[in-house]
Amino acid sequence: MAKRASLIIQEGTLKSYFPGCKIIRYGEDEIVWEHNITPSPLSGSYTLKLHYIRNKGAKVYVLSPKPLPLAPGKTRLPHVYSTPEQRLCLYYPVDNEWDVSMLYVQTLIPWACEWLIHYELWVATGNWLGGGIEHENIAEKKLKEKQSGNDEILGEAKKKPKHDRR
């Protein structure tokens, strides 16, 4: 297992790359970073939040604008873990593309900027060009689980005779 980069080092590099950013660090257990980012000269401005908790990993969110506009005809954001939370999917955990030894300023934050550029292209074209592995987001999974549970209950009710349904 890779040796985790100290959160003091992470904080220092974040401050040096992004002067004026907001950082809250709780010892070596947790760090929260927020900053306004403009991913390209033609891009809009976005507020990103990176939240790392020891043994739970790092999550990256778009705080603003919220909600992010969707491409015409689309009902959810592409390549996210949660559309309502605007939690970005930046790497494939199974392939170990990111680990705790890596600096956020060299991985997660540039990846989030790249995601935003692909997002802007998606809004304009309706096509996600950012690659990655298609997956359900957390909200979709919960909805399917809930629907599956309701289907099972309905299925049981259909099996019972009418006079025995409770």
From TrEMBL:
This is Type II CBASS E2 protein domain-containing protein. InterPro entries: E2-CBASS. It comes from Parvicella tangerina. Residues 144-166 are annotated as: Disordered. It comes from the Bacteria. Residues 11-135 form the Type II CBASS E2 protein domain. It holds the Pfam family E2-CBASS.
